[in-house]
Amino acid sequence: MILVQVLIGIFLYVNCLMIFTFLKKEMFREDTRYILFAQTLFGDSAFLVLCDVLLLGNHYQFRMHMIPCFLICTTAAFFTNCTPLTLVAMCLERYVAICMPLRHADISTSRTRFLGILIIWAISSISPLFTVISYISLVPTSNLLSYADCTVEAPYKEEWQAQTRFIILLILFIFMIIIVVFTYIKIMIAARAASSSKNKSTNKSLKTVILHAFQLCLCIMQFICPYIEMVFWNNVLVFYNVRYCFFVVFYIAPRCLSPLIYGLRDEHFFLVLRHYATCGFHKHLQSLPI
Questions:
Q1: What H or E segment, with its residue span, contains residue 127?
Q2: 47: closest CA among 252, 273, 203?
């Protein structure tokens, strides 16, 4: 538990610093890939805070009112879906930038970005909306006023609810993997056909897409973990150890990759981030547009 809290604390600190860096520079606020990156930072931070609340509540056996418990679980489910969908959007943005550079400026407009974010939010809401409707239709009103141990399984009173949610998410992630593979193949073809001056940029985009695909695989594992945990249900100690391990590997780890992908690999963002992280001791920021 102490290790998990330390990791979450470090993660939230880095994310807040990166969000601050994004908000401070207009050049980032007007670039599609940085806007999508900022959305992943915000969504991942909110998701981990909500999951940590549930984790601490279960660790200290705190019984929570069902209404706030239900709201926390459904909101966490929304942010769980939002992150991989945003990763797919980031892959598509790289595809357009590399494979259709002349149309990139026309496609990547403020209106397109707004519609894209709305689509991400709408698709992310499908699974939580199903959970809300099925829970309200099955559970008596009196149950909403009761207190219970709040877990991610709390909104699912029947097995078919969890199975239906799993099928919805599985179909969604299959489509996302197909899109990521498609963008990788297209960028790889463009990289082979590119001139030497463009080859460095396309190769970097290829590596970015690969990292996003790895993040998606880790995110998919989040929905398999509860079924693996059920095997250890009879042994409480092993069950909680397995759950903590899965939380670190499949919940925290994927959300640590986004800061590494854009916060450290992106030269411009890294220079600005280092400037604010060191309170302006580095002067490299002067060469960047404001």
A1: helix 126-138
A2: 252
Cβ-contact 70, 156 below 8 angstroms = no
For residue 102, how many C-alpha atoms fall within 13 Å in the half-sphere facing its CB? Answer: 0
Please enumerate in sequence order all residues whose Cβ is within 8 A of that of 121, keeping only pairs 6 or more positions apart, or say none.
Answer: 82
Question: What phi, psi does 148 have (nearest 5°)?
Answer: -160, 170
Residues paired with 63 in a beta bridge: 149
> Are 122 and 81 contacting, i.e. CB atoms less than 8 angstroms apart?
no
d(CA 224, CA 5): 23
pTM given for the model: 0.81
- Which residue type, as a one-letter code, is found at position 193? A
Tell me the pLDDT tens digit for each residue of 223-279: 677 667 767 777 777 877 887 788 778 777 777 776 776 667 777 777 777 777 777
Give the C-alpha separation, 139 to 213, whole Å. Answer: 38
Q: How far apart are CA 250 and CA 95, in angstroms?
A: 27
